[in-house]
Amino acid sequence: MVHLTGEEKGYVTGLWGKVNVEAVGGEALGRLLVVYPWTQRFFDSFGDLSSASAVMGNPKVKAHGKKVLDSFSEGLKNLDNLKGTFAKLSELHCDKLHVDPENFRLLGNVLVCVLARNFGKEFTPQVQAAYQKVVVGVATALAHKYH
Hints:
- With 147 residues, this protein is mostly helical.
- The chain is built from eight helices and no strands.
């Protein structure tokens, strides 16, 4: 559960309505794989991840990034029940994929950076603070099955 004030919810939903999920998702996942290259081990089937340009131009990275942000969008609709919203994904990433739960936190922080880059002055410190709460809540929910 994420505790946001009414004003913070307005920041999050207002900006999210302007997000190009496909572009931002692909950029966020791509940057995760470039900045934290050890995360690439979970994406062996994605083909060429040998350089930053290969990662950022990889259609499988872009497609999976969109899929990730589609799930994130569902979380935004269910901020009061993030654990329930992400229960199946948590189980999948824990039991079958064995993803290090720290990667969820890293991806959330990268997403905040990408939003800041894409929205510039509109991504005020107040908006950032609200999004930081959300990405921490989502990362915690995704890591739930690990406990």
